[in-house]
Amino acid sequence: MNMLTTLPTTLGRQPWGVIVPLTALVCFGAAVLYSAAGGHWMPWSALHVVRYLVFLIMAMVIARFSRDFVKMMALPIYVMLVLLLMAVEALGFVGGGSQRWLNLGFMTLQPSELMKPGIVIILARFYDMLPPGATREFRSLLVPGFLIGLPTGLVLMQPDLGTSLAIVFGAVVVMFLAGLPLIWFIGAGVAGAIAVPILFFVALHDYQRQRVFTFLDPESDPLGTGYHITQSKIAIGSGGMFGKGFGNGTQSHLNYLPEPHTDFVFATMAEEWGMMGGLFVLFVFGLLLRYGLRVARDAPGRFSRLMAAGLTATIFFYAAVNLMMVMGLAPVVGIPLPFMSHGGSSMMTIMICVGLIMAVDRWGKRDMRGSFEDS
């Protein structure tokens, strides 16, 4: 009887104002994947919906985690993810020229994806333990530098530039919000500007350098290295305001558009649904990011604020880079579009971020109820 009365209360406390639009976006993505597969539920569309439902339940479970439990698990999770990245180097299989995945039998796991929320959690825990005044000391930079550098180096060895940039982005957001001196970030920016030309010719692989050249001038080789982005822009532009209609896309159906179900799923969508479809996608992401920022603003305690803000920044990076990439505003770095691209590891990562943000939201509401009752 208690379970019957508790369950509706638990369901009622879910942030349905975010979950419902996200579910609508996933269903929209499933329709796009259905069309990209030539009108078939398999192999992409049906799995896309099933994965979302499974990971939505996972997110709701994560949202029930206590603050102390998440703090306690920050370091073990980080260590486990580093070990998994090392296992990729030793046991991972190669796909698309990169060694990024572990075959677990029941699923194929990309550990570097999980490091995106993992780095946010461990840094939020570190700065939560650090006295506020100590953020101006170099120990506030040295330990995080090691925590960031180790997984980033392992991911770059795979090689996966896009994921390594996502890890660094989330980490830098947490460090900035933790209160590190602004001059350090300015100095890092200046050093980065000096180092980029050197690293471009020394550290990047040939295909990564070619992506940068292609980004700067994709029309110079429209049938070669510039093919991906050229076809993506053709697909987006041909959709116009309302698109060609569901199932009537030509770039994806005639195999002109590469990776229409993963990296370039937005171009597949825009060709059939036009600008109105694109505005719907942006609207849902706007709702999610606004929710994350509100939760971070109202979060109880330093750890909660840093974690919620860092996870929101990670989701923003996913969406912003993918959308810029398919429109030719950023180099092609292989980052999927959340809730629309086919892929289990990326869907799981994003739903972990959503679940943890929901947990912070619950912590804040619980503390507010406790304060109200005390008064």
Mind explaining what this structure looks like?
The structure is a single chain. It is built from 13 helices and 3 strands. It has 375 residues and is mainly α. The protein has one domain (18-374). Strands 1-2-3 form a 3-stranded antiparallel sheet, covered by helices on one side.
Task: Please report the number of helical segments.
Answer: 13
Helix content: over 70%
Radius of gyration: 21 Å
Q: Helix- and strand-based class?
A: mainly alpha
Q: Low-confidence segments, ≥5 residues, pLDDT <50?
A: 3-7
The succession of helices and strands, N to C, reads HHHHEEEHHHHHHHHH
Number of separate domains:
1
Spatial shape: globular
| Average pLDDT reading | 83
Largest sheet: 3 strands, antiparallel
Order of strands across the main sheet: 1-2-3
Distance between the termini: 32 Å
> Beta-strand level of the residues, as a percent range?
under 5%
Q: What's the layout of helices and strands?
A:
Blueprint: H1 2-12, H2 16-36, H3 45-62, H4 67-91, E1 93-95, E2 98-103, E3 108-109, H5 111-129, H6 139-156, H7 161-177, H8 182-202, H9 206-216, H10 227-239, H11 265-298, H12 302-326, H13 344-374
Helix pairs in contact: 2-3, 2-11, 3-13, 4-5, 4-6, 5-6, 5-7, 5-12, 5-13, 6-7, 7-12, 10-11, 11-12, 11-13, 12-13
